[in-house]
TrEMBL record:
<dbReference type="Pfam" id="PF00528">
    <property type="entry name" value="BPD_transp_1"/>
</dbReference>
<feature type="transmembrane region" description="Helical">
    <location>
        <begin position="28"/>
        <end position="53"/>
    </location>
</feature>
<dbReference type="InterPro" id="IPR000515">
    <property type="entry name" value="MetI-like"/>
</dbReference>
<keyword id="KW-1003">Cell membrane</keyword>
<keyword id="KW-0592">Phosphate transport</keyword>
<keyword id="KW-1133">Transmembrane helix</keyword>
<feature type="transmembrane region" description="Helical">
    <location>
        <begin position="294"/>
        <end position="317"/>
    </location>
</feature>
<protein>
    <recommendedName>
        <fullName>Phosphate transport system permease protein</fullName>
    </recommendedName>
</protein>
<feature type="transmembrane region" description="Helical">
    <location>
        <begin position="247"/>
        <end position="269"/>
    </location>
</feature>
<dbReference type="InterPro" id="IPR051124">
    <property type="entry name" value="Phosphate_Transport_Permease"/>
</dbReference>
<feature type="domain" description="ABC transmembrane type-1">
    <location>
        <begin position="87"/>
        <end position="313"/>
    </location>
</feature>
<keyword id="KW-0812">Transmembrane</keyword>
<comment type="similarity">
    <text>Belongs to the binding-protein-dependent transport system permease family. CysTW subfamily.</text>
</comment>
<feature type="region of interest" description="Disordered">
    <location>
        <begin position="1"/>
        <end position="22"/>
    </location>
</feature>
<feature type="transmembrane region" description="Helical">
    <location>
        <begin position="124"/>
        <end position="152"/>
    </location>
</feature>
<feature type="transmembrane region" description="Helical">
    <location>
        <begin position="178"/>
        <end position="198"/>
    </location>
</feature>
<comment type="function">
    <text>Part of the binding-protein-dependent transport system for phosphate; probably responsible for the translocation of the substrate across the membrane.</text>
</comment>
Amino acid sequence: MDTPTSKAPAPPEAPQGRRTTGKAGDRVFLGLSRGSGIVLLVIMAAIAAFLAYRASLAISKDQANFLTAFAWNPQGNPPEFGIAILAYGTVVSSIIAMAVAVPVAIGIALFVSHYAPRKLAAPMAYVIDLLAAVPSIVYGLWGALVLVPYLAGLNQWLDEYLGWTYIFDKTGSGPARSLFTVGLLLAVMILPVITNVIREVFLQVPRMHEEAALALGATRWEVIRMSVLPFGRSGIISASMLGLGRALGETMAVATVLSPSFVFSGHLLDPGGGTFAQNIAAKFNEADAFGRDALIASGLVLFVITLLVNGAARLIIARRKEYSGAAA
């Protein structure tokens, strides 16, 4: 006669909605991490409140439309100032920088992580890390003394062969202190940042995915296209947003290279233009109390633009499951 086998009692389940306390170290770490997040949110809220309050003091006395006016004369009688030129210059220079830097950064990251020999990949990664640590004023001096003179020939070529596109139609004269030059300089500056992040993401691709593709007869490029790039999409987006954040807020390099002007021009090769950060750095010392409030109002717009860009990137990643590395 068979006797029923005895089974060990199942461990009691934790009540729903409660977490096990764990050790004291875990509780301390949880408290510190949660407190750090709360402090960060409080700091961001305090910055936003300060900018909004000081901006409201200036915008309430502005006799022009703050969002569409081209002039910047807060010391005038009556005061008139607007951010149209600053927003245009900031967005255009950042778009140029991203269009140049992101494809190059992806290519460099792929070469370092999957193509270059180990003896060459390590020094290249080290040099890229060093480029990310170069101060922005050094980039600005290089741009003013080297990039601006040497872009004269490129600007002439673009005007001759692509002038029919209007944006590359050079109508003015003088050195190449234009938004196009600023965009190229920003591309050089953000290239190391984007490359480093993308390279680290590509190095995290599961080795089994690549070996399985090679075993099925895939070429090196097919492995990159089917395994590496899908896995690294979220990292590429995050790295691009990190670089875009630096491009939007760059100050000294832009102020060193750009010839500021509040005359609107759709010709990217013509000298002139302006950005939020460059305008604040150039006018803050000479501005009175009301002028500084006006500059803070423009800083509030830059703050909002940066938040919207980063928020949009997070939404793209969250809504596209295929960007997740686990789904690759």
